[in-house]
Design a protein that fits this description.
With about 375 residues, the chain is mainly β. It has 3 helices and 30 strands. The structure holds alpha-D-galactopyranose (GLA). InterPro entries: Aldose_1-epimerase (IPR015443), Aldose_1/G6P_1-epimerase (IPR008183), Gal_mutarotase_sf_dom (IPR011013), Galactose_mutarotase-like (IPR047215), GH-type_carb-bd (IPR014718), TAT_signal (IPR006311).
Length: about 375
């Protein structure tokens, strides 16, 4: 940045004008992430919260679980609100979080009976959801403290998060070195880049478990949000929410979101699949498949505020979970009780239980390979 522009910005800041109101995004000097204490774990480990802002989006991230504790975006009148469910304290995250805002690993969603066979050897991983494993097991990546390295690069600001999962952790083979990068762009997009390498063949399926409510995290249900998903098929599940292996057509079912409809429109239809997860809790088979660059797959819009979230990903699947297990027993960061449907998750990933379904896209990672996955969240109003 040349000195004359810097002088303009400093002058504007002194006059009480924020960078955002200057209008041209490139005129804004990128602010460095700010770190504040967020509490201490029982073993004495200190947890920090990082605050980032760019292009009108404000993000707060915990070193514990890489958790998005707050994500604020403006409505059509420029009013910011937090659109992601979460808690105010570390204690709440440790004791009772249903994965609010967290990074999920080593394997997002379920593996049947926590068991799979790789190269002729059967592995038993931590079982924490009835007889199955969910989101990596009892102590998944959502419950680990990540090393966080802030950065600014050109007009981007972000965080690199590092976690090494040792060979045998939660039963998974191979030491997995994981790097996740959260970037806020000058347009206010939130981009997630996942990378991982291993020293033994293993399975990997990383994702982010933000619960969205574009009207604000304490505003009631998301049933009036409009959603579209670019998927003609989904993976039906059994009573334990394990895919049967079938790729079923969405046409003529409550799972058809190819044209935008409200989340609530078909949620009470007496379709047997809706009984298993007490609502929508399924993997959509994205029509675009695996791509080297993120492709658009879903749009979520809150008509009342105008806030719109567009999601693009390299992944072949989307787990859309309509917050069915929120039951009024948790008090969120806005001081209200979260009830069923108060937030929804759009988790870009490979299909659940892929290690037990050879016909699904593979989640196997071998030494010498690098796991890469990217998801971009774009906001407008
Ligand atoms: C995922 C699963 C759901 C539920 C939530 C967490 O989205 O698909 O069944 O377990 O995580 O509560």
């Amino acid at each position: 940045m040349d000195m004359s522009r810097r002088t303009v910005i400093v002058g504007a800041a002194a006059a009480g004008v924020t960078a955002a109101t200057l209008g041209t995004a490139h005129a804004a000097e990128v602010r460095k992430p700010v770190r504040t204490p967020f509490g201490t774990l029982a073993d004495g480990t200190r947890v920090h919260r990082w605050s980032l802002e760019n292009g009108g989006t404000r993000l707060k991230v915990l070193s514990y679980g890489g958790i998005v504790q707050s994500l604020e975006v403006p409505d059509r009148r420029g009013r910011h609100t937090n659109v992601s469910l979460g808690f105010d304290t570390l204690e709440d995250y440790v004791s009772s979080s249903p994965y609010f805002g967290a990074l999920i690993g080593r394997y997002g969603n379920r593996i049947a009976e926590g068991r799979f066979t790789l190269d002729g050897r059967t592995h038993q991983v931590s079982v924490n959801d009835g007889e199955n494993t969910l989101h990596g097991g009892a102590q998944g990546f959502d419950k680990r403290v990540w090393d966080v390295e802030p950065f600014t690069k050109g007009s981007d600001v972000g965080l690199h998060l590092y976690y090494t999962s040792v060979d045998g952790e939660m039963g998974y083979p191979g030491t997995l070195r994981t790097k996740v990068t959260y970037t806020l762009t000058r347009d206010g997009d939130w981009r997630i880049d996942y990378e991982a390498t291993t020293d033994r063949a293993t399975v990997v399926n990383l994702t982010s478990h933000v619960y969205w409510n574009l009207a604000g995290e304490s505003s009631g249900t998301v049933y009036d949000h409009e959603l579209s998903i670019a998927a003609s098929r989904y993976t039906p599940v059994d009573a334990g929410l394990i895919p049967t292996g079938e790729l079923a057509k969405v046409a003529g079912t409550p799972f058809d979101f190819r044209r935008a409809k409200t989340v609530g429109e078909d949620i009470r239809v007496a379709h047997p699949q809706l009984l298993h997860g007490k609502g929508l809790d399924h993997n959509w088979v994205l029509d675009k498949g695996i791509t080297s660059r993120p492709g658009h797959i879903a749009t979520l819009r809150d008509p009342s505020s105008g806030r719109t979230l567009r999601i693009a990903t390299t992944e072949p699947g989307l787990q859309f979970y309509s917050g069915n297990f929120l039951d009024g027993s948790l008090v969120g960061s806005g001081g209200t009780v979260y009830r069923q449907g108060d937030g929804l998750c759009l988790e870009t990933q490979h299909y659940p239980d892929s290690p037990n379904h050879p016909s699904f896209p593979s989640t196997v990672l071998r030494p010498g390979q690098t796991y890469r996955s990217t998801t971009v969240h774009s906001f407008s109003a």
